[in-house]
Amino acid sequence: MGASVPHPALAGLVRGLDHVAIAVPSIAEARKVYVGALGMTDGGIEHVADQKVNVLMVHAGAQRIELVEPAAPDSPISGFLAKRGPGLHHLAYVVDDVAAAVAALQRAGLRMIDAAPRPGAHDTRIAFVHPSATGGVLTELVELPRRMH
Q: Under a CB-based contact definition with an 8 Å cutoff, are residues 9 and 1 in contact?
């Protein structure tokens, strides 16, 4: 399946783009560019212990960019940065029910990184789809907190 064509199993599950995530070695340095030079709005840093990362969500109008830095040497982002360097890490899509989305994708035979939802930043529930299932792009499914629906 081509990288520009979404997998048919994603049809009807995805409600829209939640954010684009960029792996950075330092949020402090990245903030100088995204907030300082580009003038994006700073959403504040959050530590996500489960994933061993710190994230800064910046806003450009209605668009959200998540800057992700490793919070520990064994963070998955540490490995990503060592192998690929800073840059695009994943695309995140809003779904109504992440557990139902994971189940639907598993039934469709898509390779998942997460077999069940886990806690994400900003009180979300998330699961990752393996890049081999989505044209080489790491894909995050995001269920927003009920107060944000």
A: no
Work out the number of other CB atoms within 10 angstroms of the CB of residue 81.
Answer: 19
Split at pLDDT 50, 70, 90, the class of 1 is very low
Q: What pTM was computed for the model?
A: 0.87
101 vs 10: CA distance, rounded Å: 8
Q: What's the angle, vertex CA 10, arms to CA 8 and CA 11, rounded to 5?
A: 70
Name the one residue in this structure whose structure tokens are 């800064």. Answer: 56
- CA dist 46 and 95 (Å) reads 22
Alpha carbon distance 85, 35 (integer Å): 21
pLDDT at 13: 86
Average pLDDT in the chain = 91
Domains of the chain: 11-148 (3.10.180.10)
Quick one: tokens of 114? 């997460």
The Cα 25–Cα 44 span in angstroms is 17
The distance between the two most distant Cα atoms of the chain, rounded to a whole number of Å, is 45
Are the CB atoms for 67 and 24 separated by under 8 Å? yes
